[in-house]
Give the backbone structure.
Amino acid sequence: MEYIYACLLLHKLEKPIDEAHLGKVISAAGATPDDAKIKTLIASLQGVDIANELANAQIAVASSSAAPVAKAEEKQEEKKQEESAAGLASLFG
């Protein structure tokens, strides 16, 4: 996970995401860089627009976090309707 964070940090600082920079960030964090992991990550990021991916991830998180709130509000409304119906039923015995 620290390799992903290092990539995000380099992206935020507008530095090139390459083996040298990634290794320096990992070392600065107090970990020993794994050259195989770095090379694999760099290869997997070829052609990826990180800014676009981050924007899409934020949209996905926002929409997925809104869904449970809407469901909770629907449940509360249903519960109120059931309570109202139960109250009216008690009037008629």
